[in-house]
Structure formats: C-alpha cells, structure tokens
Amino acid sequence: MSIAVEHLTKLFGQQKAIDSISFRAEPGKVMGFLGPNGAGKSTTMRILTSFIPQTSGRATVCGFDVAREALEVRRVVGYLPEHNPLYPELYVKESLGFVANIHGLQNKRQRISDVIGLTGLGDEQHKKIGQLSKGYRQRVGLAQAIIHDPKVLILDEPTSGLDPNQLSGIRKLIRDLGASRTVVFSTHIMQEAEAVCDHIVIINKGNIVADDALSSLRGVHPGRTLEEIFISLTGSNAIAH
C-alpha cells in the first residue's frame, strides 16, 4: 500500500481542519480526493508530503512515517501544490536542471530529456517559464514533480483554471502517470474526477463521507452523476465547471 492514513487529525488553534480521517491509496491507480473548497483537501496533502505535521493520527507513504521520516517521504513523493511554485525568469530546461540538482540525480541529462518528452515540453524547453501559457506552466510543474521518478504523485488542483484544450492534455498525462505509480488527485471539479480517477474519496468539513471505486460509488447511487452524488453527500453545490 503506497499511502495509508489512519485517524489523521489537524488542528489550527481551535479549528479542526481534518477530523480523524482514514483512507488508503494503491499503486497503479489515480485516487480522486474530492471536496468543496475548505473541506481539508490541501491540509491532508501537506501532511502527506511532510510539509506540516498532523496533530494526531498516523500517515505513511511507501512505509515511511510522514512525521518521523520526512526526508525519506520526500524522496518517494512528487508534489504539485495548488499554487504551482515556478521561477518565471528561468528557462524550462534550466528549471528542470535546478530541481534535478536538488534531488542529487546522477543521470540528470537523460532524466531531463525523459520528462520533457513525457510532459510534452519539447517545443517549449528553450523558452522562459514566464512566457508560457498556464497549461504549459502546469506541465512544467508536473515535470518538476516527477523528475526524480517518484513512486507517489500528489497533485493539488492541477487542472484549475485551464481551458478545454489544456485540460485534455493534462488529463491524459495524469492518467498515463497513474499507470505506473500511485497518484492522488485533488479537485472540486467533478468532471475532472470522472475523466481521470479510478477511486474516489470525498471529504467534507474535515470528515470522509465516501471512499470507494468510482464504479462502485455509481452502483450505490444508480442513475446519479458523480456531481449529484457529491452534492448529496456534502450538501454543497460550490462546484466549478
């Protein structure tokens, strides 16, 4: 099991961002981590990537404890946060070299070439990041996240704000990446989840309200779209289209 979360809780002062949540994510599948804005998605992802500590409970990634073995966790995880951290003044290939150096890659030149091909950045590799469209900047973020060939990929709202043509390319890329690793894909856009995900976990107000294969979830709620299921479970219609 690549990711195991057991009774994870996070408090910010008196506010409980996540409340004793538990779920698992398996290799070779894309898990959709869904919820309204403010449901606790990003908080959970930051804990799983060892950016912030939990208040209680336990989480492991590839067997490494996120609190006690943070360095090991970061070696096996690729993370694309909601606000893609890029240096606009760097060229695409230059930025990938910078990230490769951080990871201490020995086969840096070959790996940069591989991820440029995988993410469709060949024609853009000699451009400055600041000159790219948002869709291509997202591809650069994904390339940085996978440069060290991680076993687990955690993507927080990677398709937010993209146009339909950009969405199609990013969706395919995420599905392709999910074939060989564990992918956790956070979104509040139900169409994205239906297009990309195999398994669905829905969080609402810090609590897990659904955890099942997408096909099974539809079977439990016959005749309903994922959007309708989401609304019935969360009471929220704050869904982006």
TrEMBL record:
Keyword ATP-binding: yes
Domain of life where this protein originates: Bacteria
Molecular-function GO terms, alphabetical: ATP binding; ATP hydrolysis activity
CDD domains per record: ABC_DR_subfamily_A (cd03230)
Protein name listed in UniProt: ATP-binding cassette domain-containing protein
Pfam family, one: ABC_tran
Keywords: ATP-binding, Nucleotide-binding, Transport
Domain ABC transporter stretches: 3-230
